[in-house]
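Why do we bother with a discrete structure alphabet at all? Because it lets us treat a fold like text: something you can write down, compare, and reason about line by line. To make this less abstract, here is a complete entry for Probable malate:quinone oxidoreductase. Read it the way you would read a sentence in a foreign language you are learning: slowly, and without expecting to understand everything at once.
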Amino acid sequence: MTQNSDALDMVLVGAGIMSATLAVLLKELDPSLRLEIVEMREAGATESSNPWNNAGTGHAGLCELNYTPQAQDGSVDISKAVVINSQFEVSKQFWAYMVGKEGFGDPSNFINSVPHLSFVRGDKDIEYLKKRHELLSAHHAFADMVYSEDRATIADWVPLMMPGRDADEHIAATRSMRGTDVNFGALTNQLLKYLAAQPGVTVTFNSKVTGLQRTGDSWQVEVKNLNSVQTRQLDTRFVFLGAGGGALPLLQISGIEEGKGFGGFPVSGQWLRCDNPDVVSKHQAKVYSQAEVGAPPMSVPHLDTRVVDGKKSLLFGPYAGFTTKFLKYGSMADLPLSIRLGNIKPILSVARDNMDLTRYLIREVMQSMDERLASLRKFYPEAKAEDWRLEVAGQRVQIIKKDEKKGGVLQFGTELVASKDGSIAALLGASPGASVTVPIMLNLIERCFADKIATDDWKAKLGEIFQAREKALQTDAETYRKVSAESGKRLGLTAA
């Protein structure tokens, strides 16, 4: 049975951090908007936004070595770290603004101060880390970063990681006290709860978008109730595909020219998790190191403090794997069904040019528990098997794009794809993802609502929410310090 619904201003697919953020931003800019969020699962934030499906690192370039790549000549490029840091500060401003809204909830439910460290072993990586620190600490966003090769100092920073370590091993670390742990699941659900209390908002669970068709100035969105045979038709002026790995198939269904040629490369993941309070209490940090040769950037090994529902745990990993699912709760047919005439060449080109990655994923899939523990002991030499259990992490779908020279390239970032008329947009890709949701969604608003964002009302509201955007934060030290301190204080961060 098919039912027709009243016309909406927008339909957002997926009840994760992306859709929740975009919906709240747009409702703050225009409270009269009528919108519906459609989610396939029984609740929000069950896929990549779930706290056990991601590392919860408030990605700010403080510890992630893949954001500061080293060239063959030994030079280190910090530009990506600076950009991501400023983007995270924009996200913090929005969250700080929301903390002041009635009914939003306590920020400690979703964000907590946790130091961010980079840790390396061996003379070559030590020299790299030293250069990285020299360049980053000269920038105002990283001025508090401390470098050390002193074992006693590092033992004070990460007491769990030093006992049992070879006394002759050369090590070095940097530490920033401004790091955070973010429970993006809790944040998503606080945003959804706030949204649900607003007039003109519907959040629908157990429902799947099965059709998208352009009709005149609107989109017809077919929504199937997974608990019944009912199908609804939603009429809307704007559609956002924020369904994580599920966004690519929907983008293909839409048929827009801008979405043609994209493919997806799914990468699964696993963590080792520890809840033993005697172990957890000895590690208060997120510690990132260098990725193995051939490993994707999302597989940089790290030992993390997590704060979920007020309780601390440790995660180590991730251990990558491969599945043809585009979502953790998806179908094994997701990858084969995504192959089209327009993207088969890029997909085959990526398969040909990324054999190191393929071998790496095969090796990861074949690992035993003892081999996973051996990787952990490079961080925590005295780790005991009985303290750790394996957790399945979230699914990531990396972007495959057409390329004139290579045929296709594999990307590990995020990409916003929007139609020329701005009536539909999709977010593809993975890390840094959730940490920079707010600037990504602001970019979407600027592209898809260009006429509205130029109005005095929208400008004034954006000025109320955001004291400074990325460019000012990157170039103006005084503005950066003021804005970061104010948002940090409102969020209850101890290093604000």
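What the structure line is telling us, in plain words: DSSP finds 16 helices and 21 strands in the chain. Residues 90 and 216 are 36 Å apart (CA to CA).
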